[in-house]
Backbone:
């Protein structure tokens, strides 16, 4: 039930899956959980900036998981977010080569009831790193690719938003932009390493 | 990989191929390693685009959330900018009011104003034992100022008392110059004789006359002498006058 524009857990999941309501869902995640998660991160040595960045990545991971239908509702949104945030922060601490003592104390702080989301997180970390590849393209390419593949606009709708004459011009431009990105992906050492591991 | 094959893969990715073509492409990806690798890279590229899209969407909402939060926090903890501004306004108002008050005080403080503020009629009954009541005194008590002056003028022998009362009568009639002359006469006589008959009265009221006659310097000098003399009959009265008034008048005299 949505009381006073606030989604209950089930509704929140549905809102995330509905592109028109995703913004409202993200806002609710921030309003309801950002302070709670940030406090936790700061209790474990994170700065205010760390806690805000970790929460942002937590939200991204949660949205990704939900949009792919991998959130099964076995725990509350709050518990699930906490698990994601702890994993992200734990991995970040590892990267920063913090002392084993801190990691151990973090490990001890884990609740037995918490979800094991570590496999999601490692997958997300790769995506997070590859995300930067899109920003190596020029602005017009980024926009075309985002409109088509993220916002799912048709070629006709894209013509209205872009400075191109017709759908065919947009289609050709989109093709070239995707090619450019694919070349960047192909040549990225992280992807090459991943392919080797899979083989 | 040929442009054509890559185009077909992209069309497949975009789901713009017809049913039969889709099946054929699926078989090609399974059989051709190069096509499989290109297909993997294309899918990964689209994943990256979606990830970036989601990232930007979250970033926009995060900024909006932070703006909303800072807007809500302003009246509580960080009242500083607003409160500071408010405090500055209050301080400016206080300064303005204080400045206006000082300016008002400065412009309205003048010898004549001081005289009007502090002048009190001389009370014949309480200030001094006058002895036997004569016609002049009677006229004075009745505040018949002109009669006091007439009777004083009719006296062949004028003592300090008649001179003083006559001076007070002139003063009550706002004739300060003749009043000053009469008080000066009292003071001169005392100086000559070494007496102090009506000395204190003449000193205080001549000072008041000076103020009224716009001779502030002379008036203030006498009043300050009285304010420093505890034995003076008008010590208390002189000290009831505002020091600020005195300072302002002195400042005005010097500038």
Residues:
């Amino acid at each position: 039930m949505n009381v006073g524009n606030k989604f209950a857990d089930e509704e929140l999941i549905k809102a995330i899956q509905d592109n028109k309501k995703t913004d409202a869902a993200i806002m609710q995640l921030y309003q309801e959980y950002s302070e709670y998660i940030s406090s936790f991160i700061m209790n474990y040595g994170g700065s205010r900036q760390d806690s805000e960045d970790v929460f942002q990545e937590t939200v991204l991971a949660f949205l990704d998981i939900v949009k792919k239908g991998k959130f099964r509702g076995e725990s509350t949104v709050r518990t699930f977010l906490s698990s994601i945030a702890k994993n992200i922060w734990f991995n970040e601490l590892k990267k920063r080569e913090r002392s084993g003592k801190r990691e151990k104390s973090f490990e001890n702080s884990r609740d037995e009831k918490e979800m094991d989301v570590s496999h999601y997180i490692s997958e997300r970390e790769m995506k997070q790193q590859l995300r930067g590849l899109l920003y190596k393209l020029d602005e017009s390419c980024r926009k075309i690719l985002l409109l088509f593949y993220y916002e799912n606009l048709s070629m006709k709708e894209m013509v209205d938003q872009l400075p191109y004459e017709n759908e065919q011009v947009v289609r050709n431009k989109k093709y070239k932009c995707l090619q450019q990105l694919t070349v960047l992906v192909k040549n990225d050492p992280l992807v090459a390493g991943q392919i080797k591991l899979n083989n | 990989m040929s442009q054509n094959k890559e185009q077909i893969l992209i069309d497949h990715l975009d789901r713009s191929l017809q049913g039969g073509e889709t099946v054929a492409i699926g078989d090609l990806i399974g059989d051709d390693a190069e096509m499989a690798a290109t297909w993997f890279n294309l899918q990964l590229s689209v994943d990256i685009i979606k990830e970036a899209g989601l990232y930007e969407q979250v970033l926009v909402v995060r900024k909006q959330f932070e703006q909303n939060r800072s807007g809500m926090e302003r009246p509580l903890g960080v009242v500083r900018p607003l409160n500071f501004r408010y405090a500055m306004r209050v301080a400016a108002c206080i300064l303005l009011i204080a400045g206006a008050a000082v300016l008002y005080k400065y412009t309205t403080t003048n010898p004549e104003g001081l005289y009007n503020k502090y002048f009190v009629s001389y009370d014949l009954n309480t200030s001094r034992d006058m002895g036997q009541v004569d016609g002049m005194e009677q006229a004075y008590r009745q505040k018949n100022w002109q009669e006091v002056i007439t009777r004083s003028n009719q006296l062949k022998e004028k003592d300090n008392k008649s001179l003083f009362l006559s001076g007070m009568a002139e003063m009550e009639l706002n004739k300060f110059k003749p009043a000053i002359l009469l008080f000066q006469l009292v003071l001169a006589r005392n100086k000559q004789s070494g007496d102090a008959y009506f000395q204190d009265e003449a000193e205080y009221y001549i000072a008041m006359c000076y103020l009224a006659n716009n001779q502030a310097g002379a008036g203030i000098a006498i009043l300050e002498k009285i304010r420093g003399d505890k034995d003076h009959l008008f010590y208390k009265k002189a000290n009831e006058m505002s020091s600020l008034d005195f300072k302002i008048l002195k400042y005005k005299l010097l500038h």
The mean pLDDT of chain A is 84. Residues 22-43 of chain A form the longest helix (22 residues). Chain A touches chain B at residues 22-23, 26-27, 30-31, 34, 52, 56, 59-60, 63-64, 67, 127-128, 130-131, 133-135, 142, 145-146, 148-151, 175, 178-179, 181-182, 185-186, 191, 195 (CB under 8 Å).
